[in-house]
Amino acid sequence: MRYETATALADAEALGLLADPTRRKLYELIAGCARPLSRVDAAEAAGIARPLAAYHLDKLVAHGLLEAIYQRSPERSGPGAGRPPKLYRRAQREFEARTPARDYRLLAEVLLEAAGNGGSETRAAVARAAHEVGRELGAEAGERGEPLEELLRRRGYEPDTEEGRLLRLRNCPFDRLAGEHPELVCGLNLALLEGVLDELGGKAEQAVLDPRPGRCCVAIRR
Fold first, then answer.
1. Cα 81 from Cα 87, distance rounded (Å)
2. Is 38 within 8 Å of 46 (Cβ atoms)?
3. Less crowded by CB within 10 Å, the N or C end of the chain?
4. Is the same domain home to 176 and 124?
5. The pTM is what?
């Protein structure tokens, strides 16, 4: 219990950093980019000086919101290339700040455990329910005139640039649960996005299972 309380306080402190508009802008730039960014790139994109960008970026790293790596460009290798530049990317860990305490993940784990032990009929019912929820999300977005990419971004999928006709999703909103119940959660995720596409994409877009490291297990084929 003490550990959970300490973690919650640390998460709240970390998320509190994003109240600063400059830090939030830098964090969103890094999180929204498919590749790690250097201090120079981040500063230019945010329209601020490099030393100020470095200060805020390192603050976000210190609190676990970003990760720093050293990586040299393929064009600059071999003797005399110098030290690899410091690059920043979004941290993979999750942050939560709630009061009073709620444990929806535990509830989800219980339900997934029950569904996993319930046989093919139970799993089919879960898929149907996920598809229906997806249709509702798509219908609501359609009423607002919200495009598919914006809906995906708002739901935490972080749509990436397309590879040919394949739209990749850089983040899985159910990542931890997918790691514990991959077949069930990935199937549920697929059904959910199929429902969204039934409302927004029509026959021109199709959700497919195409798991890749560091990506959502579902991609969208156009």
1. 16
2. no
3. N
4. yes
5. 0.69
Specify the DSSP element, H or E, that contains 98. Answer: none
Neighbours of 127 (CB within 10 A): 19
Triad 105, 189, 144: Cα angle to 5°: 95
Q: Which domain holds residue 203?
A: 104-221
Task: Tell me the per-residue pLDDT of 133-167, one tens digit each, with 9 for 90 and over.
Answer: 999 999 999 999 999 999 998 898 988 876 678 89
For 195-215, b/e burial (b = at least 16 CB within 10 A) is bbbbbbbeeebebeebeeeeb
Task: Tell me which DSSP letter residue 14 carries.
Answer: H
Helix (H, G, I), strand (E, B) or coil at 57: helix
Rounded to an integer, the average pLDDT of 94-120 is 76
Q: Provide the domain count of the chain.
A: 2
Q: Is the pLDDT of residue 117 over 60?
A: yes
Co-location of 113 and 183 in the same domain = yes
Q: What is the CATH number of the domain that holds 64?
A: 1.10.10.10
Across the chain, which distance is largest between two alpha carbons, in Å?
63
Amino acid residing at 3: Y
Residue 98 in domain: no
Determine contact, residues 171/158, Cβ cutoff 8 Å. yes
- Identify the pLDDT of residue 8: 54
User: Would you say residue 95 lies in a domain?
Assistant: no
CA angle 82, 71, 158 (to 5 degrees): 150
Strand order across the beta sheet in which 66-70 lies: 37-38, 86-90, 66-70
Q: Are residue 112 and residue 216 in the same domain, yes or no?
A: yes
Residues 6+ apart with CB under 8 A from 182: 217
CA–CA separation, 20 and 60 (whole Å): 11
